[in-house]
Structure formats: structure tokens, C-alpha cells
Design a protein that fits this description.
With 448 residues, the protein is of the alpha/beta class. Helices cover 17% and strands 35% of the residues. The chain contains eight helices and 27 strands. It has helices at 29-35, 62-66, 87-104, 120-131, 246-256, 272-279, 291-303, 361-364, and strands spanning 2-5, 9-12, 16-22, 40-45, 49-50, 56-60, 73-77, 82-83, 105-115, 136-143, 158-165, 179-180, 190-193, 199-205, 208-213, 217-218, 223-224, 262-265, 283-288, 307-312, 323-329, 333-341, 386-395, 398-406, 417-421, 426-433, 438-443. It has a 15-stranded mixed beta sheet, with helices on both faces. α3 (87-104) packs across α4 (120-131). It is elongated and about 90 Å long. Mean pLDDT is 85; it is low at 343-380.
Length: 448
């Protein structure tokens, strides 16, 4: 029969390029400082905002939700995006994580501190304390251009990102982020065309000629206006309230993380940095306390077929999930079918105006119901609440994924039947719901 089991680790792909930790960063700081001491080429910190305003995320329910039908899309409170304590506790928390980042960095490594709005001075002071004032390399202004019109002041349309080095040995690849100088005339320089057809600008100083070629790569300065924020309908949008564009992360990685290097994001969010690192063939480490944030990250990594290890640390246990499956064996492996999910539930509201806020999640997902082998008995099935399924093999509280699927805007449909080739261990199934909560089930042959 199928038994629900607590799963502490899940491995996807034949080669794991990185690791994701579902944990409170404070609870695993000692482990990270020991296991990853001086292993990171770059650490990116985007701390939660010090605010009592609730942050929200977009939850899509089934195919209808991913197609934009209003009754199947709702705003989900995402409290992990905020810090509700006192300012002194908040600053102490950020300083602890910044100190951890320094421990994890190689001597050639660097820190990017993405300062929350209204806290730039405090973040600068923390970084000066931990890294030393002389190790501040840049104060980067990311002018993203989006935002509303201000009535009583100037519109806020930029973020501040501080770059700190651990030592003067810091790695920095200027060519990787360079852009052509361009053929536009600047200052009083004279425009010329060389014998090789290359356009250049020249000036003479003290009898010596200086040439600046139009196609030469010039590193960007510390004001970035060429990377826009993600618009409401941007295809990259995944519904996370404070999502950062991959282009921003790609620039930081290109400049400060060498080929096959390691980059860490200790406030992972929707996973822009791990995804950008994977696309560049680099290793990544990411931490977050939110099931849903890490589920978004995993879906984005799965979509580009990147292997990774997902670790659930102490205090991040899975929910009790009522579900049932069928398992049929043949010479090549197993056929796994999801044949039952959930118990008695409220129907989705038909009234577009009321929306799905009426749904009771206690009735839909968190019932304390036993999981039983259904055999051939018909079982009620409502797959709208399922956002992802994976099948694989179980060994010592760990799951090795062999096959799976998750809903995305491109592929909102989800299959209920999966082929599982013969492997080592017991067959297991992982189900993830629309809020990123999970349950893992292991096949326990009767008579054992």
C-alpha cells in the first residue's frame, strides 16, 4: 500500500548543479558556514523588507487559472516577503546574514547587497561593519523605469545595489559585461574610419594620439538604465510579488562568478539568481523559508532541465496529504497513476465577483485522512489543486526523481500517468499543490 512519508531530500536530474534549502536562514547558518566556508565566488542578498504591509503572490488553480480565468486566480498572502519585528532586530538579523555571506565567500569573492527601499543607509552601514568601508567597490543604481507617478515628490524608480569585495584579489570579468562603445560622437573627439573599416574616435594630448574604437567593449558604469523591471504581463513573470529580472542576475553573475563557479542567494524568492546561474552553466546555492517561493524556483529549473538537490531542513516538514495511487509493474518498469486526490471539498465558486477566496483549504488539502491503497475502486479526483507531480525511488528519507511534470503558463495541463523505469529503492510519488505544499508517498509492499 502507499504510505505518506516525511521527505528530507529530493534529487532531480543526473547531475546536480546546485542545492536549494527550505529553511530559516538563521537556523542553518552554522551548517552553511561550516559546509560552504570559502566556497562561494559571489553572494547576492535581497533581504525581506522591514514592513507590516502584507505582500501577495498570484496563485493559479488548474488549467483555468493558468489561462487567466478570474475565478481560478487569487491573491495569496506571501508573508515571507516581509519582516514584522522591530528595526533593531531587523538590522541585527541582516548583519548576521551578511557575516555569514562573508564566511562563505572565497578570498576572490564578492557580495552584492540589494538594499530594500528606504534602508540604503542602514545596509551600507552593515556592509561597512562586516566587510570594511575600504572594501566597498560600487554603489550601483538600478534605474528600472517602471512605477507610478508621485504627487508630492519624485517618483521612486530605482534600487541601490552595493558591491563589496572580500579582498583585493576580487574576481571581476569586465569583458563579460562590456557593451560596444557605439558610433555616436562624444565630446570633441574626432570621428575616423581606419584602413580596416573600423570606426574610431581620436584626440591628441601632449602630442600623443588616443583612439577609442566604436566596436570596443566598454564595461557598464554604476548607473544601469538598460535593464527594465518586469512588467505586469512579462512572460518571465511567475506571480511572485518582488520578482527580480533574470537579466539583472545574469549581469552580476557574468561579472563576478567565473566559469563553473558558485553563486549563493540567501533570500531566494522566486529563484531569479539560481535560474540565471544554471543558464550560464554555473553552480548555485539558494535558501528560503517559503514553500511556494521554492516551488516556483524548482519549476523554473525543471523547465530548463537543470538538475539540483532540494533539502528540507528541521522545522520545514511536509503537510499531511490525502491522496491515492495505482502501481502496475511490467518488464521495463512501473506505470504509476494518480487515481485519487483529496476528500470532500467545496466546489470552486461560479460567481466571478466573489472569486476563489471562498475556498476552504482545510477541506481541500489539509484533511487528516488516512492514505490507503485504492485497488480498482473508483475514487473522487480533482486535479485542479495539483500543481506538480514527480515519481522516483525512495531510499533513507530521500527521493531520487525519475520523471515528473508541473503546471506552467506554457503547459497548464498536467498528466496523471507516469512511467517509472526499474531502479534501486521503492517507488515513490511526490505531489505539490498550488501553494507549493507537498506530500511524498512510498510504496510499501504488503507482507513486509
Amino acid at each position: 500500500m502507499w504510505m505518506q512519508m516525511p521527505c528530507t531530500s529530493e534529487r532531480t536530474g543526473t547531475e546536480q548543479r546546485g542545492v536549494l534549502y527550505r529553511a530559516d536562514i538563521r537556523e542553518i547558518a552554522a551548517m552553511l558556514s561550516e559546509r560552504y566556508a570559502q566556497r562561494m565566488d559571489m553572494v547576492y542578498l535581497d533581504p525581506p523588507a522591514l514592513t507590516r504591509r502584507m505582500a501577495y503572490a498570484k496563485e493559479c488553480i488548474g488549467v483555468q487559472g493558468y489561462r487567466g480565468e478570474a475565478a481560478f486566480v487569487r491573491r495569496m498572502p506571501q508573508a515571507d516577503n516581509r519582516f514584522t519585528g522591530k528595526q533593531s532586530a531587523y538590522l541585527s538579523f541582516v548583519q548576521e546574514v551578511t557575516a555569514l555571506a562573508k564566511t562563505m565567500l572565497k578570498p576572490t569573492g564578492c557580495l552584492y547587497m540589494h538594499a530594500p527601499q528606504g534602508m540604503t543607509a542602514e545596509m551600507k552601514m552593515i556592509c561597512d561593519t562586516v566587510f570594511g568601508k575600504r572594501n566597498c567597490v560600487n554603489e550601483i543604481i538600478w534605474h528600472y523605469g517602471a512605477g507610478g507617478q508621485a504627487q508630492n515628490g519624485y517618483a521612486r524608480r530605482h534600487d541601490t545595489i552595493y558591491l563589496y569585495q572580500k579582498s583585493k584579489k576580487r574576481y571581476f570579468n569586465a569583458k563579460a559585461v562590456g557593451m560596444p562603445r557605439g558610433a555616436e560622437k562624444r565630446n570633441n573627439l574626432k570621428r575616423n574610419v581606419g584602413a580596416d573599416g573600423r570606426v574610431y574616435f581620436s584626440t591628441r594630448v601632449g602630442g600623443k594620439e588616443y583612439r577609442y574604437y566604436a566596436d570596443a567593449l566598454v564595461p557598464p558604469d554604476d548607473v544601469w538604465m538598460d535593464i527594465s523591471d518586469l512588467q505586469h504581463k512579462d512572460p518571465e513573470r511567475c506571480g511572485y510579488d518582488t520578482q527580480k529580472p533574470e537579466a539583472l542576475m545574469a549581469r552580476l553573475l557574468s561579472a563576478s562568478c567565473p566559469e563553473d563557479g558558485w553563486a549563493a542567494d540567501l533570500f531566494c524568492g522566486s529563484g531569479a539568481l539560481p535560474v540565471a546561474a544554471a543558464k550560464q552553466g554555473k553552480h548555485f546555492l539558494a535558501v528560503d523559508t517559503s514553500d511556494w517561493a521554492l516551488w516556483l524556483t524548482r519549476k523554473r529549473l525543471d523547465e530548463q532541465q537543470t538538475g539540483y538537490c532540494y533539502e528540507r531542513m528541521a522545522g520545514a516538514m511536509q503537510q499531511r496529504v490525502p491522496a491515492a495511487f495505482r502501481l502496475q509493474a511490467d518488464k521495463a518498469g512501473y506505470q504509476v497513476e494518480v487515481c485519487g486526490f483529496g476528500g470532500p471539498r467545496e466546489a470552486l465558486p461560479k460567481d466571478q465577483g466573489n472569486g476563489p477566496q471562498q475556498i476552504s483549504w482545510e477541506q481541500v488539502w489539509l484533511q487528516q485522512a488516512p492514505v490507503q491503497n485504492t485497488g480498482t475502486e473508483p475514487v473522487e479526483q480533482d486535479m485542479r489543486w495539483v500543481d506538480g507531480i514527480a515519481v522516483g525511488y525512495w531510499d533513507a528519507d530521500k527521493m531520487k526523481v525519475s520523471n515528473g511534470v508541473s503546471r506552467t503558463a506554457r503547459h497548464p495541463e498536467i498528466s496523471t500517468r507516469f512511467f517509472l523505469p526499474h531502479g534501486t529503492g521503492r517507488p515513490c510519488v511526490r505531489i505539490t499543490d498550488t501553494q507549493g505544499r507537498e506530500g511524498t508517498f512510498v510504496w510499501e509492499p504488503e507482507g513486509r
